[in-house]
Amino acid sequence: MQILDAQKENKIWPLFRLGFRAFFLGGALFACLAMVLWLLTLSGTKVLPGIANPIWWHAHEMIFGFGLAIVAGFVLTAIQNWTGIPGVRGWPLALVAGLWLLPRLLMPLRGETNILVMVLDLFWLPLVAGMLARPIIQIKQWRNLFFVPLLSFLTLLNALSYYAALSHDWLLAERVFITAVLALSALIAVMGGRVIPFFTSRATATDKPRPLPWLEQLSLGSLWLATLGWLLLPRTGLFDGLLALVLLTAAFSNLARLARWNSKLTLNIPLLWILHLGYLFIPLGMLALAAALLQLGITVSLASHWLTAGALGAVILGMIARVSLGHSGRTLEIGKPMVMAFALIILSALLRSLLPMLAPGLTMMAYHGSALAWTLAFGVFSWLYSPVLTQPRADGRPG
Asked: Can you tell me where the transmembrane regions are (predicted)?
């Protein structure tokens, strides 16, 4: 069922009428702010007075601050479509959004080891998981229940990242951050497999390719195995070689998966090609991480940015642009400024992940250029979509 009482719906500020509104806008604005602060930090300006380790802060906030905000907005919106039960709205949504926002604002001032910051940041995501679990269990839609243990796993990783900061164990921090990035990449692969071929088929009036069960199991299974392996396996030559093999399997199987989705038909449809290009960064990131483990001249940090700046940045920007239009009752059309934002996010990914490999002497220039392009991309989204996300649906329906 859906909310039918228009008077009740109209009493809710549009920003809190459905999860995508608050978390997409908040996540996009935070993506800009956090990257500007990082850019200033790279330039030697002290803008994070409470932070002891700015590199830890940057990695943590882009993953657990920005990335998980978008995930929360997506699942809290999708659950209404999956179950037919009205999604979280009003004061409960405002509460969980506020609990996400507070540690983002407090951490630069109070520090990454402040107790209040840690407690708040470890509380909001399990709250989202609970909001998600209730309607799924109510109608026994077990297929989508996997989001609940996934969000719980990401909460555990978040807790481990704080433990690493408290104990100054930066090797553990890197292991945790890469694991979280792999988990988010696997989530993109799961959801991408559901929606990207469907969107492409519908927009191009072509048949949706029938999934190959063995390829689905291999591509997704290898991603999840790589995620757990990165967290749990010892860092030795033998285990690094085994993990590299899993990553290579994930890379080639996901390339094969993407090749079946008719990407060539999307060249004139920006809302599609951004998703296809973004997905391409997943196998490229797997290849880069395998090369890092095999010590082929690339660091783990550099390799991981094929997934963070690349897959997460591009797929997130493409999805929030599309979902925001669809769920606000608008046509799925974008103008040149948003197309430019898509181009900027791809440029940001290539500057951050590819340029330092090709020209190590330009690494700092690559960092600055990538951060600037990222900020502009999400800044354009925030500017164009603020009216969409803070005003009622164009068709007058709830949501």
From this structure: 20-42, 62-79, 91-109, 115-133, 145-165, 177-200, 212-232, 238-259, 271-294, 306-325, 337-359, 365-385
